[in-house]
Amino acid sequence: MRFYEFKTLIKEDAGIVLSVPKGRSGPEIADVQKALLALNITTPEELGNLGRNKDGVDGIKGPLTSAAVKKFQTQASIRVDGDPGPETIAALNKAIASNPNIKFSKSTEDDVSPSARKGSRSQNIDISVIQDSDFNKKVNLIANNLGVEPSELMRIMKFESGLKTGYQGGSSHKAVGLIQFMPDTARDLGTSSEELAQMTAIQQLDYVYKFYKMNGLKPGSDLGTMYMITFMPAYAYAPEDTVLGQQGGGELGKTGLSMDAIWQQNPAFSNGGPKGKPGSKKFFTVGDVKKTINAYRG
User: What mean pLDDT comes out for the span 60-81?
Assistant: First the structure.
């Protein structure tokens, strides 16, 4: 879904009035979260203690917020789907109006998690140009619009996921989908890991396309560069001798990630193949990543 800049509705003579969200993140979602908290439908803990104040208000309609909405819908005897649509917003406004002691401030962009605000980076990407009901044909359309080789895009998806759309290693594993979207990446794209996991491969291709467009893949990029954008966009165009993962290493600049964790979690790059195990080489570079994907045949 795309990120929208919402307009808030305030009636000075009637206190807080909620309006229907037009996406899965934004101030209006934050208003819903505040209302659910004020009505004692949920608690900050049940909302994950998220947001700038750790009170569960982060402006993102994730699974915890959807669960809280379902609780309210059940109590209000309306359709239970976890979506704060017109019927639910009307019921929330009625509940607020009947409780004059309920007070909370209307939300602004400051109430929305920065990771959700980033979703605006992908909102204007036109995906109509890559639509096809056949997976292989859609891959070709995506590659042609990106200016890269379809076979290389396919090789990356096979290397990352084996063309599987779910979680690799179960839902406890954070990465999901064709190119192993991480949760923050999913938010940047205006969706979530949970939503991606429920999509078909053809549906996920929309987000594969948006991912590469959002991260500035240059037409004519070779396989190694394409994969570096997939693996670590901040270092896509770094010199090949740049160390990314290292046993016992500290924080990797631009990412905030532990170089030791990167080394532990990506044995293929320090051992020259997808079946390698940590230990034979104590670090890996941008060049090692590119060498591994270039050697992969699927």
Answer: 91
DSSP 137-163: HHHHHHHHHHTS-HHHHHHHHHHHHTT
What the block records as the tokens of 68 is 């809280």
Chain centroid to CA 138: how far?
22
Q: What residue has token string 């979703």? A: 119
**Measured at the alpha carbon of residue 265, what is the angle toward residues 263 and 266, in degrees to the nearest 5?**
70
Contact 118, 43 (CB under 8 A): no
pLDDT value of residue 291: 94
Q: How far apart are CA 92 and CA 42, in angstroms?
A: 13
C-alpha 7/C-alpha 31 separation (Å) is: 12
- Sign of the four-CA dihedral 279, 280, 285, 289: negative
Cα–Cα separations (whole angstroms), residue 167 to 134, 160, 268: 23, 11, 19
Asked if the model's pLDDT at residue 171 lies above 50, the reply is no
Q: Which two tokens stand for residue 62?
A: 């994730």
- Orientation angle between helical segments 135-146 and 201-214, nearest 10 degrees: 10
Question: Would the pLDDT of 13 be above 80?
Answer: no
Of 20, 171, 7, 37, which is closest to residue 83 (Cα–Cα)? 20
Q: What is 104-142 written as a DSSP string?
A: -PPP-GGGS-HHHHGGGGGTT---GGG--SSHHHHHHHH
- Residues 192-247 pLDDT 10s: 888 899 999 999 999 999 999 989 999 999 999 999 999 999 999 999 999 999 99
Name the residue ranges covered by the structural domains of the chain: 10-120, 125-225, 232-298
**Residue 167 · residue 176 · CB < 8 Å:** yes
